[in-house]
Amino acid sequence: MERENHTVVREFVLVGFSNFPGLRIVLFISFFLIYSTSLAANILLITTIRLDRTLHIPMYFFLSILSCSELCYSFVVIPKMLVNLMSERQTISWAGCLCQMFFFNLFGGANCLLLLVMSYDRFVAICKPLRYPVLMKESVCKQLVMSVYASSVTAAVIEISFILNLPFCGPNRIHHFFCEMAPVLRLSCQKSSATEISIFLICVVVIFLSFCLILLSYSLILHAIFLIPSTEGKRKAFSTCTSHIIVVVVHFGCASVVYLRPKSTYLLHKDIFISVSYTVLTPLLNPVVYSLRNKDVQIALRNILGRSIFMKAGRGEATF
Q1: pTM given for the model
Q2: Which residues contact residue 237 at a Cβ distance below 8 angstroms, ignoring those fewer than 6 apart?
């Protein structure tokens, strides 16, 4: 076999931010603070939805699942990135690289599909309100989430199987701060356009098709909203969608720039900072947007925080 004539790569070097040696401490502190804030904000949002019974409806059920997925998505990349920022040897094993690619693709795909499911929930709530309790009952919601993760796992397994069939014999320097699919493919000593096209098509199906179906959902939603006679009714109906629309625009905007652009436009520095936006900043966007723009979540947060302060006061603890 051709692979037997080559030295097998057992670890990769993540070049990452090594081109900015003077900024490593600043970057570490910045990313650590953002990641910690994102972690706390998503956990707080999940806890609030879990504890407040008024939020036990499909929209917030899907939101809590999305927050869990965002936590896992960032956990796959950021801790290793933080360690590498403070290490001299910025390496990752071959097995570790495969695992990182697999789970990154899994949760990235799941996020796209969860946003699609959330748009379907808004479509049913606004366009078919009388059938909403039946179409979005608890068992259906759970089946939708299971379908999301089954599809994401399937897509991730197929993508990783393509990588496993490629030989890597050097060089082993990944020009990124994590094992993203595109820069890893460039290191293979057996160039395969069929593999690249296959992976690209999977990304198109997951990202582009999801986005098109979300656009279809919102075109039907807007049509239904325009048919509402009162201005106040239109405003209330549309306000239930604004948070989701913001998250969709940012999420799919970053994903399309990275995965659906021509290979010839690849620029290392530009790609690294785009990747920072969707691995570090986007997971923070979800809880911030829904907390700032959603009155139900704001009320639930105040109730839970107020209950916590009351319990502390009852135990004689300081509340400041």
Answers
A1: 0.86
A2: 126, 224, 225, 228
